[in-house]
Amino acid sequence: MGELFRSEEMTLAQLFLQSESAYCCVSELGEIGMVQFRDLNPDVNVFQRKFVNEVRRCEEMDRKLRFVEKEIKKANIPILDTGENPEVPFPRDMIDLEATFEKLENEMREINTNQEALKKNFLELTELKHILRRTQQFFNEMEDPSLLEEASNLLDPNEVGRVAPLRLGFVAGVIGRERIPTFERMLWRVCRGNVFLRQADIDDSLEDPTTGDRVHKSVFIIFFQGDQLKNRVKKICEGFRASLYPCPETPQERKDMAAGVNTRIDDLQMVLNQTEDHGQRVLQAAAKTLRVWFIKVRKMKAIYHTLNLCNIDVTQKCLIAEIWCPVSDLDSIQFALRRGTEKSGSTVPSILNRMQTKQTPPTYNKTNKFTSGFQSIVDAYGIGNYREINPAPYTIITFPFLFAVMFGDLGHGLLMVCAALYLVLRERRLIAQKNENEMFQMVFAGRYIILLMGLFSVYTGIIYNDCFSKSLNVFGSGWSVRPMFTGDNWTFKTLEDNRILQLDPAVPGVFGGPYPIGIDPIWNIATNKLTFLNSFKMKMSIILGVIHMLFGVTLSLFNHMYFKKNLNIFLGFIPEIIFMSSLFGYLVLIVFYKWTAYDAKTSKDAPSLLIAFINMFLFNYNDPTNKPLYTGQMVIQSLLVVIALACVPCMLIVKTLVMRRQHLWRRNLGTHNFGGIRVGNGPTDDEAGIIQHDQLAQNTEEEPEFNFADEAVHQAIHTIEFCLGCISNTASYLRLWALSLAHAQLSEVLWSMVMHIGLSSGNFAGFIVLSFIFAAFASLTVFILLIMEGLSAFLHALRLHWVEFQNKFYTGQGFMFMPFTFDNILEGKFDD
Q1: Are strands 169-176 and 488-489 parallel, antiparallel or unpaired?
Q2: How far, in Å, CA of 462 to CA of 412, rounded?
């Protein structure tokens, strides 16, 4: 159980791996994921390391697989993922894998090249088919006399009589439909109006063989006279990327050419279908093993990258690595090394040698699917120092509880529990689906946090007796409805004539004592409900906050005891716990005392706790408006304030002076003898010899110079921060009261302004209206009260843990243990 409350004990170890078995040993270590390799070649360029060629070969194989994956996704073929975790291939298998991937890539590129050429040829034939069809229509239209007259105007008027029949040259082609207006204007300007353009849209969209997109094009034919205009027209067509095609002049030739084009299109379509079928078969076969190939290649790359972190001895027969690993997993690591040696066929075993070091080990907290979410909350604030108290086990309870104090509602809590149970019960299926939505992944990772928050919200909702802003009348009311009203018992006329009635709390009710559980449902219809809940929830917030902070200060004691910092215990923890208990612990006690000491009859004489607490600091005990709570209050409160103030110099001055004294004592290890008399404040000669022997045995470094001013300033900052933090942090817990009231009031407003409207009508039309109003009520409840209010309460609970609780004992300045593991490979992630 010790590892649950404190990070794992780590050790630095040295690995001696034979060159023949190093690959298999690292592979086995990656499977168990319990070691973190250190880089023993930090000054060596990544391109100068021993296994750089193998890493490049793996990267090249990975590139080819990504190319194949892209083609598979382009073809909309599902990639089979059976969840198989294949073993790492041996180094000799790399050649076979490279040959397989090279063949697959070449085959796919050849298929793509052929398919692109066929599609390009198919596009050209299709365009030519449309040109022949449209140009025949153009020529038929040109036989119209009015069009012949318009074409004859293209000639010089002085030569009309000398030219016998009109013979115009023409070019035909295809151009993008969006370029037609600009193309027409350019022809008119460059040719000065001496050309005749006819164009018609192609009804069907055509496929671009390069991009695969569908494009819309138009057929055009341009009539002109002379070679000069012909050259200009062709240049303009080239500039606008128009495709020009040969078009016969006679109708018979165009008809024969169209028949030949249609035949070629049919033949080409058959070849295209066969090519696509072949490509589909190749991709479908690759899709079945693509994930397995990815895992194998990336595992190999990770192994070679890890081997590059090792040193190689002068004989080139042994690799030396340094690893961080948990002490509790040393046996598993030894077994993994033994399996790796046996798998490689080597007869020389690998050696694991623990090392003594003064370097700070990484922090490693073992988690499971339940505790990982709470550990992530703690790690988001900061990775804990090595072997420091881990707040995560306590956060499992305190975090959802503080959330529920702010979110307490039975109905909302049940909705949250149902949503969390869906994620928990179907977690295997949801993990297998591998939803890549970032928001869903974040919610799914915190499914157990949401479940506990919902369960605790159900509990606090029962305590508040609040369900969608309505109270549940389970046990009836504890208030008596039989008090005297102007000397007579209440009657129905009394209820009719008086809109507001006041119940006497001094009259015993049904239970004759406290309500069995939660809050009496009669408060739901009381006019002073908010006043009562204000007082109740404010005091509850202070009580929970002080207990939470005192628990945090108490946890610091276990840190001091573990690290054997006795000075921090006597001049740190003890003054801190006394200071907080004397002031704010006392405040909690008098809250409970007031609840028990005063009943309904004497509550009018109860003093104000806030004024009493302020007068406690001012030593003001002559306030006639605020009577003392108990006998001897002045003596006890004055003593508590004096004790609390006396703790401040202990933390501020005494601790710094003692630290300076200890530093001088350690520095002056020897003593001076004058005439046999020992002079000096250091230890005796025997003590000095023992200390020197211990230092040599532990090979400790020279102690850094003690700077009294720096230590004094640091201690002053810490003391001021703690003393003022006790006040500000206690006030910060009032957010429990504020958000709880805000949530309850918002829920009540939503009910009265939305749902109450639909419930006010009792006929059939009201039922129809109620259906729509309930849909609006449910939507607003989910999006505002559950999501927005839940997120707000979550963030405030997070702040209370990070700032008010963890700063009492948690430093959070360590660095995370990042083991070499293949788990991220299986999740489709890879990070060197």
Answers
A1: unpaired
A2: 12
CB neighbour list of residue 88: distance below 8 Å, 6 or more residues apart: 27, 30, 296, 299, 300, 303
- Supply the mean pLDDT for the chain: 85
Euclidean distance between CA atoms 606 and 598, whole angstroms:
7
**Separation CA 290–CA 283 (nearest Å):** 10
- Crossing angle of the two packed helices 251-307 and 52-74, in degrees rounded to 10: 140
Report the distance separating Cα 411 and Cα 468, nearest Å: 6
b/e burial code for range 813-828 (CB count within 10 A of at least 16 → b)? ebeebebbbbeebeee
Residue type, 130: H
Q: The tokens 């008027």 sit on which residue?
A: 157
CA triple 558-563-565, angle to 5 deg: 90
User: CA-CA distance, 213 to 384, in Å (whole number)?
Assistant: 54
The identity of residue 342, as a single letter, is: E
Got the DSSP string for 511-570?
A: SSSS-SSS--GGGGG-TTHHHHHHHHHHHHHHHHHHHHHHHHHHHHHHHHHHTT-HHHII
Residue with more model confidence, 588 or 221: 588
| Number of helices (H), then strands (E), in the chain | 30, 15
In this prediction, residues 151-167 reach a mean pLDDT of 49
Statement: the pTM of the whole predicted model exceeds 0.85: no
The candidate with the shortest Cα–Cα distance to 747, out of 721, 719, 777, 725, is 777
The radius of gyration of the chain from alpha carbons, rounded to an integer in Å, stands at: 43
Band (pLDDT 50/70/90 cuts) for residue 755 is confident
CATH of 123-157+166-262, one of 1.10.8, 3.30.70, 3.30.1330, 1.25.40: 3.30.70
The pLDDT, as a whole number, for residue 704 is 59
Dihedral sign computed on CA atoms, order 91, 93, 97, 103: positive
Length of the chain: 832
Sequence-distant contacts of 594-599: CB under 8 A, at least 24 apart: 594/629, 597/629, 597/630, 599/506
Residue 679 has pLDDT above 50, yes or no: no
* Closest C-alpha among 121, 135, 116, 131 to residue 264: 121
224 phi and psi angles, rounded to 5 deg: -155, 175
Beta bridge partners of 341: none
Residue 346 token pair: 């080597």
| Rounded CA separation 58/74 (Å) | 24
Extents of the domains making up the chain: 123-157+166-262, 368-478+736-816, 481-514, 565-667+709-733, 669-702
Q: For residues 307 and 320, what is the distance between their CA atoms, to the nearest angstrom?
A: 9
Most distant CA pair in the chain, distance: 147
Round to whole Å and give the CA distance between 447 and 151. Answer: 79
Query: 222 pairs with which residues across the strands?
Result: 171, 197
* Residue 147: φ, ψ to 5°: -70, -35
- Burial letters 678-712, b for 16+ CB under 10 A, else e: eeeebbeeeeeeeeeeeeeeeeeeeeeeeeeeebb
- DSSP H/E element including 12: strand 10-18
Cα separation, 286 vs 282, whole angstroms = 6
pLDDT tens sequence across 1-17: 446 789 999 999 999 99
